[in-house]
Specification:
Number of domains: 1
Strand order of the largest sheet: 1-3-2
CATH topology: Arp2/3 complex 21 kDa subunit ARPC3
Distance between the termini: 39 Å
Order of helices and strands: EHHHEEHHHHHH
Strand content: under 5%
Low-confidence stretches: none
CATH architecture: Orthogonal Bundle
Number of helices: 9
Structural class: mainly alpha
CATH class: Mainly Alpha
Oligomer: single chain
Helix content: over 70%
Number of strands: 3
Largest sheet: 3 strands, antiparallel
């Protein structure tokens, strides 16, 4: 989901911009572009995946004028490319949505926060827990990171959007609709989880080396 029209107080717009800029600045300080410069094949996969997500974001349901519902794919991008490249990709995707007139410029910070930063953090935390605490098993990785991680990230992103509207919304009707929308979040989680898990399973079967968070020697060769 993402915001299409502003229903926020000015201070909230400024705050979301500052948070998003801070996280993006930290991401850029890690110099993720060095991986792309050193691996031409990775460049092609990352750009192709980013373009594919841009196209998938066009398939959206306009719930109300200021809110659109769509698959996000941030968890899949995080698992395949890790957090820094996934966040850069999300910023580019949100800029593309603004450029084609889908979203407003003032909402770029809020949309990056809700669709990129929050889901990527959740996906990264889940992956770290699986990597360090759970058995080295392909199905454990697939279900915990792909299905459960995507569902949890969708819930966290949706709740962050609802909380943002409740705290900083300027339209009483928008606040009411946000509270009603929160009740339907459990119904939206399975779709993101299913698509993410399905695509991740295909990658793990045919191209496990493409998934940066997956160690094929550890999860496959040693079993």
């Amino acid at each position: 989901m993402s915001f299409a029209q502003s229903v926020f107080a000015p201070w909230a717009l400024v705050l979301t911009w500052l948070i998003s800029l801070g996280v993006v600045a930290w991401t850029m300080s890690l110099r993720p572009w060095q991986l792309l410069l050193n691996d031409i094949a990775l460049q092609h996969r990352w750009l192709a995946a980013t373009l594919a997500v841009v196209l998938m974001w066009q398939l959206r349901a306009q719930a109300v004028d200021w809110l659109t519902l769509h698959l996000v794919f941030t968890v899949l991008m995080t698992l395949v490319f890790k957090v820094p490249l996934a966040l850069i990709s999300n910023v580019m995707i949100n800029i593309a949505m603004v450029a084609v007139g889908r979203n407003e410029w003032v909402l770029l910070g809020a949309n990056v926060l809700v669709t990129g930063i929050v889901p990527a953090i959740i996906a990264g935390v889940v992956w770290r827990l699986v990597d360090r605490r759970l058995p080295d098993n392909l199905m454990v990785f697939l279900f915990a990171c792909g299905f459960f991680g995507a569902a949890l990230a969708t819930l966290a992103g949706g709740l962050s959007a609802v909380l943002l509207i409740i705290v900083a919304g300027t339209d009483p009707e928008a606040v009411y609709l946000a509270q009603e929308y929160a009740r339907f979040l459990p119904l939206l989680m399975p779709s993101e989880a299913f698509i993410t898990g399905m695509l991740l399973s295909i990658l793990l079967v045919y191209h496990p080396s493409w998934v940066a968070t997956f160690n094929d020697h550890r999860y496959i060769d040693t079993q």
